[in-house]
Amino acid sequence: MSARIDEQHPLQVLQEENFRLRAELAALRDSERVFHALLDNAPVLISTKDLRGTVTMANRHFDILDGYDAAHFVGSNVFELFPHDIAEQLWRNDRKAALEKRAVHEEEQVYHTDKTLHTYMTVKFPLLDAAGEVVATCAVSTDISEAKAARIDSVTDELTGLKNRRYFNIRFAEEQKRAHRDQRMLTLLLIDVDRFKEYNDHYGHPQGDLVLQTVADAMHVTLCRPGDLSFRIGGDEFACLFTSNNVDESVALAEMIRDYMAAQQMPHEANLPYGHVTLSLGLAFVPPDSELGQGAIYELGDQALYRAKHKGRNVVSC
Ligand SMILES: Nc1nc2c(ncn2[C@@H]2O[C@H](COP(=O)(O)OP(=O)(O)OP(=O)(O)O)[C@@H](O)[C@H]2O)c(=O)[nH]1
């Protein structure tokens, strides 16, 4: 084999090397064309930045962004291109990817040409040189605004803006786990409007809707700590999940909701002896190490609510 190569004329060797390099160049150009076609047609934002935040490459999809200017985008710094709060958020994620030398997945928000704010799921990852040093970052961003809105719609009650029963079922187990982890007592509070059927019959459905919205207000006003969750789980049935330090604290919160509603003095002739709209509330307490499942805990809350109704309504029961 080596004998044959030794016999080759130097010119022939050069010619073969030339052919090989030309073929490699043609292959590189082909792959470059594919690369640019991908960049130009991908319905996602793809860009690279140097370690000072200057954009070094951006694909055509960027023309969807408000204020985008193809002539000046590449070569400008992220803080020159975007409003300060947006630039800060974008640059923070680039820095994280570069410093931690790993892909970072974050939601980011930017304005489109129609001035609407869009949410993107962005993956940012470091670009390394031959020695393994980070020299730039690359960002690939997909618009998730519609999917996010649809997801929120699917778990939101249209009338009150509270989360619905579907979300209640999703969150219940998560909240129980969280309470266990934090060694806090979880409270399930069930709320029901008193004699609501009669209210609707007497005052009409639209007025009934107003009552339901007022219940949501009462829950918002009272349970406003981060982590407090409020749901409309049926027609006139509502639920709250929250952690507290003890039973008295939970009862006090439930009483505040009851009192807020009563204080609105919404006339309800059939709801005697009160004469205005009232609520019945049932509490179930879940100690951090409770073995009870969602069904059993809900049952406890429901029984407490039943007792509240039987004690004369406008009552909080445990
Ligand atoms: N206005 C309005 N009414 C609704 C809605 N969803 C359910 N309802 C009504 O809510 C009422 C629920 O009544 P019930 O569950 O029978 O109980 P109640 O009359 O509140 O009686 P107690 O709970 O025993 O005090 C029914 O008349 C439903 O038609 C809604 O979105 N809007």
From TrEMBL:
Transmembrane segments: none annotated. Residues 31-102 form the PAS domain. It is an enzyme of class 2 (transferase). It comes from the Bacteria. InterPro entries: Diguanylate_Cyclase, GGDEF_dom, Nucleotide_cyclase, PAS, PAS-like_dom_sf, PAS_4, Rev_trsase/Diguanyl_cyclase. Residues 184-318 form the GGDEF domain. GO terms for molecular function: diguanylate cyclase activity. It catalyses: 2 GTP = 3',3'-c-di-GMP + 2 diphosphate. GO terms for cellular component: plasma membrane. SUPFAM superfamilies: Nucleotide cyclase, PYP-like sensor domain (PAS domain). Its EC number is 2.7.7.65. Pfam families: GGDEF, PAS_4. One of its GO terms (biological process) is negative regulation of bacterial-type flagellum-dependent cell motility. This is diguanylate cyclase. It comes from Rugamonas rubra.
